[in-house]
Amino acid sequence: MSRPEVIVHPTAELLVAATAARLITKLIDTQVEQGVASLVLTGGRAGIGVLEHINRSPARDAVEWEYVDVYWGDERFLPDGDPDRNETQARRALLDHVPVDPGRVHPMAPPDGKFGADVEAAAAHYAEVLATTASLATDIAVPYFDVLLLGVGEEGHTASLFPNTPYVQEIERTVVGVHDCPKPPPTRISLTLPAIQTASEVWLVTTGTAKAEPVAATLGGAKPVDIPVAGAYGQDRTLWLLDLDAASAIATGA
Ligand SMILES: O=C(O)[C@H](O)[C@@H](O)[C@H](O)[C@H](O)COP(=O)(O)O
Question: Which NCBIfam families match (predicted)?
Fold first, then answer.
C-alpha cells in the first residue's frame, strides 16, 4: 500500500494535458524496462479526456502500442458499440487510432455478447480473463497492472463501486456485476477494491468542485464503504491528479 501523493494543476485542461504526458512517459519507461506495459482504463470525462489528449500528442507514437495490454476498471453494461460504453469511448478517443494488438485489448462483455443479459456471467468471465494472465506477485488472480486509471464520482464512487453497497465491500471476487447504480446506466461491471489494490500505480484523475468533497474526505481518512474511492490505492504509487477545483476542499478537510 502506498501513501497518496497529490498533484494539483491550475485548470482541468492542464490536468488532462499533463496526465496525458505523464502516461505517455510512464508507458515508454515501462516498455524500456519490461517490454510490455499493462494499462487499466476508466470511463468518465477526465479519463476519456486524457486518452483524447494522448491521441493528439506528437509523442503518441513514441509508445509501442502493440505492446500495451489494455483492460478496463469498469464498464457500463450496454450493447457493443453503444456510445456510452467505456470501451466505445476509449476506442474512439485513442485505441482506434494506434496500432494496439487486438489480442492484448480486453474489454468487458456487453449484454448483446456471449453472455447475453447475464451480467454476473459477464463479470465472472472477466475474472477468468484476468486470472489467465495472473501475476505471481500477488495472491489475487489478476495480471500485474502497471497503471490503473480511475475517476471519482460526486458521492465518492470509483470504477462502478458506489457507497454503501455490497460491491464496495466485496473481498472474494475480483470482478462483480453491479446493479442499481445511481449513475446511469444502472447495470455495470466493475473490478473490486482487492483487484484495484494489486496495481503497481493507481492514478485518480478528477476535476471540478463537485469532486472536492470526496477527494478531501478520502485524504482525510474516510472509510471505503462510505467513500469507495478511499479504498483505491496502488502498491507502489497512489497518485491524485487534480485541478484546483477538485483540490479546493483539501486544506479544510471538507
Ligand atoms: O464508467 C464510469 O462512469 C466510471 O468509470 C466512473 O467511475 C467515472 O470515472 C466517474 O463517475 C467520474 O466520471 P467523470 O470524470 O465524468 O465525472
Answer: pgl
Assessment of whether the complete model's pTM goes beyond 0.90: yes
What's the gap in Å between 199 CA and the centre of ligand 1? 19
Euclidean distance between CA atoms 89 and 221, whole angstroms: 33
Give strand ranges (E) for the chain.
Answer: 4-9, 37-41, 68-72, 74-76, 105-106, 147-150, 175-178, 188-191, 201-206, 237-243
Q: Is 241 helix (H, G, I), strand (E, B) or coil?
A: strand
Question: What CATH number belongs to 4-243?
Answer: 3.40.50.1360
Look at residue 248 in the predicted model and tell me its pLDDT: 97
The candidate with the shortest Cα–Cα distance to 94, out of 152, 38, 24, is 24
- Which of 74, 162, 193 has most ligand 1 atoms within 8 Å of CB, for mutation? 74
* The ligand 1 atom nearest the CA atom of 74: 5
